[in-house]
Design goal:
By secondary structure, the protein is of the alpha+beta class. The chain has 2 domains: 8-153, 60s Ribosomal Protein L30, Chain: A (2-Layer Sandwich), CATH 3.30.1330.10; 157-333, Alpha-Beta Complex (Phosphoribosyl-aminoimidazole Synthetase, Chain A, domain 2). Helix content is 31%, strand content 26%. It is built from 10 helices and 13 strands. A 7-stranded mixed sheet has the order 8-10-7-11-9-12-13, sandwiched between helices. A 6-stranded mixed sheet has the order 1-2-3-6-4-5, with helices on one face. A hairpin with a 7-residue loop joins strand 2 and strand 3 (47-56). The longest helix is centred in the middle third of the chain and has 18 residues, at 104-121. The chain is globular, with a radius of gyration of 20 Å.
């Protein structure tokens, strides 16, 4: 199998179809596009808990490869997925599997970074496991995020229904643009002004979706999905598949920063299939009202299409109409 998220067919065939045991207190479990599990427990009618796992490698020294992530990325990813369910991120559990070659000073730096990331998100490191093992050649981390929410704020993909507007916050491709700009800084600097490259590399300042998720919950949002690996095309397909609905999306309305266009052109990457952390995909009965509420809080947003009753996922580009493909491997993995 190739590096990156497994294909939808493999996920259905070899993962989801093997899960048979169910419990009533697990309200939302494993599924396509479902980034959090949600639990309810007897006596707790006000809050529920959400858990999201991100088994990704943090960056080692030297050149970054497509599959490497920082511990900050993993914690922020957990927080974003929790926020997209309507939850307040509360805590993380961190598991670290370390090679024998790693120095204690390196471990200390990673934990300092993790604590700083949690401080910025107002979360606590609540526990985990740290183990040195000969089974790994570079550090490997699994981060589990835990959140809480009133039951009425819970947002499920299945709440996306025909007639609703599709809304996107900020811009697509932010996280992938930042990654590519840092990875290929020299190559990009030979083609573009330094200010453009530095601006693109700094897109990581936009990567939290907690603010827009909080505004959206108060503004009657129906469904939310954190756009991440596989880009906006992957997220749209997962939303439609998870809800069992169709979509009609206007391609030219998908919000793109010019820096993303330039970086993707130079790196031969499709911006619509590029890692897009920092972008929140939403559906609403009142798209213009949701957009106005977000903009009132300084958060860019735009309505890009409609949820439909058919199972067709359509992209409209002026007079051209084409159908969405199943999610492809993210552009950050292309050499």
């Amino acid at each position: 199998m190739k590096i990156g998220k497994i294909s939808v067919n493999v996920l259905k065939r070899s993962v989801l179809r093997q899960i048979h045991t169910k419990r009533e207190d697990v309200v939302n479990g494993a599924g396509i596009g479902e980034d959090c599990a949600i639990f309810t427990f007897p006596g707790e009618t006000v809050t529920t808990s959400c858990v999201q796992e991100a088994p990704l490698i943090w960056p080692a020294c030297g050149k970054l490869s497509g599959e490497q992530r920082s511990i900050t990325h993993l914690i922020r990813k957990c927080a974003n997925n929790l926020a997209a369910k309507g939850a307040e991120p509360v805590a993380v559990l961190i598991t670290l599997l370390l090679p024998e070659s790693l120095e204690e000073a390196d471990l200390k730096k990673v934990m300092e970074e993790a604590d700083k990331a949690c401080e910025n998100l107002h979360m606590q490191i609540a526990g985990g496991q740290t183990r040195v093992t000969g089974m790994v050649s570079m550090p490997y981390s699994v981060v589990t995020g835990i959140g809480k929410m009133p039951s009425e704020t819970y947002r499920n993909l299945k709440a996306a229904a025909p007639g609703q507007d599709v809304v996107i916050s900020k811009w697509i491709g932010l996280e992938g643009t930042s990654f590519l700009a840092r990875r290929y800084r020299q190559k990009l600097s030979e083609r573009y002004p330094a200010c453009l490259v530095e601006e693109a590399a700094g897109f990581d300042r936009y990567l939290s979706v907690i603010p827009e998720a909080a505004v959206a919950v108060k503004s009657g949002v129906c469904a939310m999905h954190d756009v991440s690996e596989g880009g906006i095309f992957g997220a749209l397909w997962e939303l439609a598949e998870g809800a069992g609905v169709g979509l009609t999306i206007e391609l030219k309305k998908l919000p793109l920063r010019q820096e993303t266009v330039e970086v993707c052109e130079c790196c031969n990457v499709n911006p619509y299939e590029l890692l897009s952390g920092g972008c929140l995909l939403m559906t609403s009965e009142d798209g213009p009202g949701l957009v106005s509420a977000l903009k009132a809080q300084g958060i860019p947003a735009v309505t890009v299409g409609k949820v439909t009753g058919s199972k067709e996922r359509i992209l409209v580009n002026e007079d051209e109409i084409r159908y969405m493909d199943r999610p492809q491997r993210d552009g950050i993995y292309e050499e």
